[in-house]
Design brief:
With about 70 residues, the protein is mostly helical. It has helices at about 15-30, 30-40, 40-60. The protein is globular.
Protein backbone atom coordinates (compact mmCIF):
# COMPACT_ATOMS: atom_id res chain seq x y z
CA UNK A 1 0.00 0.00 0.00
CA UNK A 2 1.34 3.39 -0.94
CA UNK A 3 1.29 6.23 1.59
CA UNK A 4 -1.52 8.71 1.03
CA UNK A 5 -0.31 12.02 -0.39
CA UNK A 6 -0.86 15.09 1.78
CA UNK A 7 -3.23 16.58 -0.80
CA UNK A 8 -5.31 13.39 -1.13
CA UNK A 9 -9.07 13.60 -1.29
CA UNK A 10 -10.70 10.90 0.80
CA UNK A 11 -14.18 9.81 -0.30
CA UNK A 12 -16.82 7.51 1.05
CA UNK A 13 -19.49 6.42 -1.40
CA UNK A 14 -22.44 4.09 -1.01
CA UNK A 15 -23.96 2.62 -4.16
CA UNK A 16 -26.54 -0.08 -4.69
CA UNK A 17 -24.85 -3.33 -5.74
CA UNK A 18 -26.18 -3.04 -9.31
CA UNK A 19 -24.74 0.46 -9.78
CA UNK A 20 -21.39 -0.52 -8.27
CA UNK A 21 -21.22 -3.48 -10.67
CA UNK A 22 -22.15 -1.25 -13.62
CA UNK A 23 -19.44 1.25 -12.67
CA UNK A 24 -16.86 -1.53 -12.31
CA UNK A 25 -17.86 -2.88 -15.72
CA UNK A 26 -17.50 0.58 -17.29
CA UNK A 27 -14.07 1.08 -15.73
CA UNK A 28 -12.98 -2.35 -16.94
CA UNK A 29 -13.97 -1.50 -20.51
CA UNK A 30 -12.76 2.12 -20.62
CA UNK A 31 -9.33 2.52 -22.14
CA UNK A 32 -6.88 5.29 -22.87
CA UNK A 33 -8.60 6.21 -26.15
CA UNK A 34 -11.89 6.78 -24.31
CA UNK A 35 -10.27 9.11 -21.82
CA UNK A 36 -8.24 10.83 -24.52
CA UNK A 37 -11.38 11.60 -26.51
CA UNK A 38 -12.75 13.52 -23.52
CA UNK A 39 -9.53 15.08 -22.21
CA UNK A 40 -8.05 18.47 -23.06
CA UNK A 41 -4.55 17.00 -23.31
CA UNK A 42 -2.60 13.77 -23.27
CA UNK A 43 -1.45 14.52 -19.73
CA UNK A 44 -5.04 14.99 -18.57
CA UNK A 45 -6.06 11.73 -20.29
CA UNK A 46 -3.39 9.81 -18.39
CA UNK A 47 -4.46 11.47 -15.12
CA UNK A 48 -8.09 10.51 -15.83
CA UNK A 49 -7.03 6.95 -16.65
CA UNK A 50 -5.05 6.70 -13.42
CA UNK A 51 -8.00 8.03 -11.38
CA UNK A 52 -10.30 5.50 -13.03
CA UNK A 53 -7.87 2.69 -12.21
CA UNK A 54 -7.74 3.83 -8.57
CA UNK A 55 -11.52 3.70 -8.43
CA UNK A 56 -11.58 0.30 -10.14
CA UNK A 57 -9.09 -1.03 -7.57
CA UNK A 58 -11.21 0.31 -4.70
CA UNK A 59 -14.25 -1.49 -6.12
CA UNK A 60 -12.19 -4.68 -6.47
CA UNK A 61 -11.19 -4.42 -2.79
CA UNK A 62 -14.89 -4.52 -2.00
CA UNK A 63 -15.30 -7.67 -4.08
CA UNK A 64 -16.68 -5.96 -7.18
CA UNK A 65 -14.31 -6.93 -9.97
CA UNK A 66 -15.96 -8.11 -13.19
CA UNK A 67 -14.05 -10.63 -15.27
Amino acid sequence: MHPEPSDAVRMQLSLPQALACALAQFLKRAGYSDYRALAASEQEAYAMLHAGECLRAALAEQGIAPR
